[in-house]
């Protein structure tokens, strides 16, 4: 009895899975090297060596170093776009809990991509004008779930703020600080403690006193 031939769909799936693994190797290696040395100082040969692939393989996925840098940054924003809505959905309908879940998810993505986040701050000016504009648009889009939750919380009387953009971007900057100042925070706290402390700091400022008892678990009580 002969075995049935591999179906085209199975073959395509295997190829796609292999390509995803190789692309992840390249992006992770690029984030580490470029964050350490600066994108201008990283050669394609050095990147290939760090990733454990050939230079030719990198060029199969990216047109050059500029494309690699842009892909590293977009990769983080894509993770936000995937993880944050999922976390908010799991949190249910309460806008305060949805906001807390969004911040939690944001911090966890930052933790997984710490090198890439630092690289974003250091090297985004090295992108083309088109690349920088793409990053700006994606950043606004991925921060919208935070604004949405704050907007809903204010409408329900569960949150009090006159500037939802300011609250949203304060949360984003606090999440980014886990990467930007990780060398300092890792001395005294875990990611879990960091999330709890920063969430408590912001929510304590925007949850009215008469609603705080309902969210004692989010306020570190």
UniProtKB/TrEMBL annotation:
Keywords: DNA-binding, Transcription, Transcription regulation. Residues 20-80 form the HTH tetR-type domain. Pfam families: TetR_C_24, TetR_N. Residues 43-62 bind DNA. This is TetR/AcrR family transcriptional regulator.
């Amino acid at each position: 009895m002969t075995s049935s031939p591999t179906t085209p769909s199975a073959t395509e799936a295997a190829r796609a899975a292999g390509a995803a693994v190789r692309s992840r190797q390249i992006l992770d290696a690029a984030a580490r090297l470029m964050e350490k040395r600066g994108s201008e100082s990283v050669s394609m040969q050095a990147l290939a060596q760090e990733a454990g692939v050939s230079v030719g393989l990198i060029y199969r996925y990216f047109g050059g170093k500029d494309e690699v840098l842009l892909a590293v940054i977009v990769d983080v924003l894509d993770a936000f776009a995937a993880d944050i809505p999922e976390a908010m959905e799991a949190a249910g309908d309460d806008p305060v809990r949805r906001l807390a879940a969004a911040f939690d998810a944001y911090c966890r993505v930052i933790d997984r991509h710490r090198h890439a986040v630092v690289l974003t701050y250091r090297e985004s000016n090295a992108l083309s004008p088109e690349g920088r504009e793409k990053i700006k648009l994606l950043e606004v889009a991925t921060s919208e779930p935070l604004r949405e939750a704050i907007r809903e919380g204010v409408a329900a009387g569960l949150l009090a703020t006159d500037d939802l953009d300011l609250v949203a971007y304060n949360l984003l900057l606090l999440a980014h600080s886990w990467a930007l100042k990780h060398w300092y925070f890792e001395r005294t706290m875990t990611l879990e403690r960091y999330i709890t402390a920063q969430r408590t700091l912001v929510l304590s400022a925007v949850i009215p006193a008469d609603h705080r008892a309902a969210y004692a678990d989010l306020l570190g009580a």
